[in-house]
Amino acid sequence: MAVFIVEKVVDGAILVDLRGRITIGPETEALRNKMKELIEAGRQRIILNLGEVTYIDSTGISTLVACHTSVCKAGGILKLLHLPRSVQQVLEISRLIAVFEIYQDVAAAVESFQEATRQARPTL
């Protein structure tokens, strides 16, 4: 089963819903291409919803890390949403859990972008 990618805007952030398997081959290539497209479009607030991901292999995990790195290098922020237990376990075992901001609620993830903006503003 391929990965299906649906993008939508939620309060200025881009929510990318992923469904299916994220494995070596066309699936990881599709995710990398989507992230490249978003970065080139100047999108800096991106949330990957992994709630419907049924399986992720080591190439899929490295793709998540590469996406995070690419977004950060472009001056943006990437957050993860609704991690399936299996994905969370892999991130914990590999100690990559500390790399990502992870949320269980879309509203909280979107609000966290606004919190970061408020904290970045200088106070007078």
Polypeptide structure, described:
- This protein has 124 residues and is of the alpha/beta class.
- It has a single domain, classed as Transcription Regulator spoIIAA (2-Layer Sandwich).
- It contains four helices and five strands, in the order E-E-H-E-H-E-H-E-H.
- It has helices spanning 26-40, 58-73, 85-93, 106-120, and strands spanning 4-10, 13-22, 45-56, 77-81, 101-103.
- Strands 1-2-3-4-5 form a five-stranded mixed beta sheet, sandwiched between helices.
- Helix 2 links the parallel strand 3 (45-56) and strand 4 (77-81).
- The protein is globular, with a radius of gyration of 14 Å.
- The model has no long low-confidence stretch (mean pLDDT 92).
What is the structure about, briefly put?
The chain has 124 residues and is of the alpha/beta class. It is 44% helix and 30% strand.
SSE pattern, N- to C-terminal: EEHEHEHEH
* CATH architecture assignment: 2-Layer Sandwich
Q: Radius of gyration in whole Å, from Cα?
A: 14 Å
C-alpha geometry: globular
Low-confidence stretches: none
Total domain modules: 1
β content, as a range? 25-35%
What's the number of helices? 4
- Find the CATH superfamily: STAS domain
Provide the spatial order of strands within the biggest beta sheet: 1-2-3-4-5
Mean pLDDT: 92
Given helix and strand content, the structural type is alpha/beta
Distance between the termini: 54 Å
The count of DSSP E runs of length 2 or more, i.e. the number of strands, is 5
CATH topology: Transcription Regulator spoIIAA
Task: Assign the CATH class.
Answer: Alpha Beta
